Amino acid sequence: MAKKQAEFIWFNGNILPWQEAQVHVMTHAIHYGSSVFEGVRAYHTPHKGTCIFRLQEHTQRLLDSAKIYRMTIPYTAEQIDQATKDIIKKNKLKSAYIRPIAFYGDIGMGLQVPFGQETEMVIAAFEWGAYLGEEGLQNGVDAGITSWNRLAANTMPTGAKAGGNYLSSQLISMEARRHGYQEGIALDINGYLSEGAGENLFIIRNGIISTPPRTAAILPGITRDTVITLLAEMGYTVREENIPREALYLADEILMCGTAAEVTPVRSVDGIKVGNGARGPITEKVQSAFFGLFDGTTEDKWGWLTPVE
Ligand code: PMP
């Protein structure tokens, strides 16, 4: 039985009790990783009630991931957005982690069969706290560079958020845990910095902020874009450039960001202290601007908050 994390789940257009949202063991996606998904968060805000953060961008990325794999999701962006609001309301959630996923069901075992098939679609929403821990948000996490490289260009597209890609993320994150780190950082096949198991990275030295480019086997994160935008508001420009491994050891500050991890400082890499080993000043500023979007202290100039009501 699936561990129940909320009362209801949205499944192919219907709202079902959590335990009844089941698939067959011959589901194509279980065998071949043929799914595309999103991770989205909703926050309880004092000024606008429960709001979904950057819903339109997440739904667009889901549709983009599906397009790369020639998948047909039988719902429009508007229907997915509405269903996301509906499942949050139905579960009476004030804040939530939301997991929309489109996948091939029990359509047969052939690798060619997906062509022209419609996907199934699920939207789960449940409560989920700080992914790398509350303490990590304050004081930073210890990270390690993994021995696994990220995917090479033209093998599997890292720009698609597809189920199969997360075998790479699992190897990265399991190795990090085994070595006592909270998160793993991966290099691309050229040896340049890529990303964390589920986070993008920013490196700061002497006031210069850089982040790996799209060509460094990253998923171009929506939080990454948020951080770049908030930094621009504060007068900082971010360089998107290839970053050598040693820059991690020499950084004054490093931050990780993603929907699950939000904006989290990194306090050490491979046991080497980042700066003075505490959250740095630029990280603190952008982190407070980020969380300020949800308590109303940062003005949402971009229309990033979609109220559920
Ligand atoms: N990289 C990977 C591999 C991820 O899984 C995620 C989380 N979706 C990110 C980066 C960050 O993306 P976002 O900010 O859109 O959540």
Automatic annotation (TrEMBL):
Single biological process term from Gene Ontology: L-valine biosynthetic process
Extract the Gene3D superfamilies matched here.
3.30.470.10, D-amino Acid Aminotransferase, subunit A, domain 2 (3.20.10.10)
What function does this protein fulfil? Answer: Acts on leucine, isoleucine and valine.
Pfam families attached to this UniProt entry: Aminotran_4
Q: NCBIfam families this protein is in?
A: ilvE_I, PRK06606.1
Q: Which UniProt keywords apply?
A: Amino-acid biosynthesis, Aminotransferase, Branched-chain amino acid biosynthesis, Pyridoxal phosphate, Transferase
What protein family is recorded? Belongs to the class-IV pyridoxal-phosphate-dependent aminotransferase family.
Q: What is its cofactor?
A: pyridoxal 5'-phosphate
Q: Which reaction does it catalyse?
A: L-leucine + 2-oxoglutarate = 4-methyl-2-oxopentanoate + L-glutamate; L-valine + 2-oxoglutarate = 3-methyl-2-oxobutanoate + L-glutamate; L-isoleucine + 2-oxoglutarate = (S)-3-methyl-2-oxopentanoate + L-glutamate
Broadest EC class?
transferase
User: What protein does this entry describe?
Assistant: Branched-chain-amino-acid aminotransferase
Q: GO molecular function of the protein, one example? A: L-valine-2-oxoglutarate transaminase activity
What species does this protein belong to?
Lacimicrobium alkaliphilum
Q: Which GO terms describe its cellular component?
A: cytosol
Biochemical pathway: Amino-acid biosynthesis; L-valine biosynthesis; L-valine from pyruvate: step 4/4; Amino-acid biosynthesis; L-isoleucine biosynthesis; L-isoleucine from 2-oxobutanoate: step 4/4; Amino-acid biosynthesis; L-leucine biosynthesis; L-leucine from 3-methyl-2-oxobutanoate: step 4/4
Enzyme Commission no: 2.6.1.42
